[in-house]
Write a structure and sequence with these properties.
plasmid; Hydrogenase maturation factor; five-stranded parallel β-sheet; 39% helix; alpha/beta; globular; 11 strands; iron ion binding; four-stranded parallel β-sheet; 376 residues; HypD_2_sf; single chain; Rossmann fold
């Protein structure tokens, strides 16, 4: 398949690994203190484990898993607010499949569905808009979540709803932005991040210039990379070369998809529909300033929180789980005491085990046998 097979070619992959093995000794890092590269995106995390890339790297290069999975950072209180809205008898509550099993204090949306709430899985906000048109006597609420990757689809759907004068359609907005998150991570004095692999799909929307503050203010190199083995390894090699030369700059490995300026039409739609919410809570990370968005005044009538006024709840994470430490790269998923015991994909304790992009789910799927061997 064009644009896939050539980026998974085993011969080329091993050539890149060989090059990395030759260049790695020139790094000022060793096996005890390796170069810590944070892959921000959960899609990167799963690709790394799926193709075993972490096991092919030299000993002095290590991946740490970042918070770039929007389902994984869903606060429990926001899930509880969704459940409160979904229990209204006139409501059809629409969500992506990943979010339906994320636990809140009051259970999950799946459990609410089992108890009688009309909760439905959709594949896009346009599906929810279609439901609203087909059910004019019901109130259809779409759970809008995700980084800048999914924000344009939400924005365009809202524009269409307004143009079509659909009045029974609402959005529960849990969109969050990537840049304040990275700034927050780097501002923590005990962060272990030496370099970043930035997600290609978010970057396709926001462009590469948005990351310039990272090398400028924090002296960390960053490479925007795609999701295939060749993409990721080329991204790692580009970071290694910067480190060897003691440079810090933004580079774009994913030029076949990501223009440096991003998607200008998507950005325009987002500016029309969204404005900054201010401080937003992240599961495992606490409150991050200017990281969330809400609907602009022109679209307030579509805001589910304005329409249904759910109770605003802040619920503390269970201290037994180390979700926050995993999200910030302070520990690996299998180092959490709940991993594979009280927390597994069938009975998830935290969102990182629920989401298809969660780091804990990736470890469980691809590395759980190794963990069992260590324990035994």
């Amino acid at each position: 398949m064009r644009y896939v097979d050539e980026y998974r070619d085993p011969t080329r992959v091993m050539q890149l690994i060989e090059t990395l093995n030759k260049r790695a000794p020139l790094l000022d890092y060793d096996a005890q203190h390796p170069l810590q590269i944070m892959e921000v995106c959960g899609g990167h995390t799963h690709a790394i484990f799926r193709f075993g890339l972490d096991q092919l790297l030299p000993d002095n290069i290590d991946f740490i898993h970042g918070p770039g999975c929007p389902v994984c950072v869903l606060p429990m209180g926001r899930i509880d607010s969704c459940i409160e809205i979904a229990r209204h008898p006139e409501v059809i509550f629409c969500t992506f499949g990943d979010a339906i099993r994320v636990p809140g204090r009051q259970g999950s949306l799946m459990q609410a569905k089992a108890q009688g709430a009309d909760v439905r899985v959709v594949y896009s906000p346009m599906d929810a808009l279609t439901l609203a048109r087909l059910n004019p006597h019901r109130k259809v609420v779409f759970f809008a979540l995700g980084f800048e990757t999914t924000m344009p689809a939400t924005a365009i759907t809202l524009q269409q709803a307004k143009a079509q004068q659909v009045t029974n359609f609402f959005f529960f907005c849990q969109h969050i932005t990537l840049i304040p998150t990275l700034r927050s991570l780097l501002s923590q004095p005990d962060n272990r991040i030496d370099a970043f692999l930035a997600p290609g799909h978010v970057s396709m929307v926001i462009g590469t210039a948005a990351y310039e503050f990272i090398p400028r203010h924090f002296r960390r190199p960053l490479v925007v990379a795609g999701f295939e083995p060749m993409d990721l390894l080329q991204g790692v090699l580009m970071l290694v070369e910067q480190k060897i030369k003691q440079q810090s700059r933004v580079e774009n490995q994913y030029k076949r998809v990501v223009p440096d300026e991003g998607n200008l039409l998507a950005q325009q739609a987002m500016r029309e529909v969204f404005c900054l919410r201010g401080a937003s809570e992240w599961r495992g990370l606490g409150v991050i300033a200017e990281s969330g968005v809400q609907l602009t005044e022109a679209y307030q009538s579509y805001d589910a929180e304005v329409r249904f006024r759910p109770q605003q709840q802040q619920v503390s994470d269970d201290p037994r789980a180390r979700c926050g430490d995993v999200l910030t790269g302070r520990c690996k998923p299998h180092q959490c005491p709940m991993f594979g015991k009280g927390c597994n994909p069938q009975n998830a304790f935290g969102a990182l085990m629920v989401s298809s992009e969660g780091a804990c789910a990736a470890w469980y799927q691809y590395r759980s046998q190794e963990v069992n061997d260590e324990i035994n």
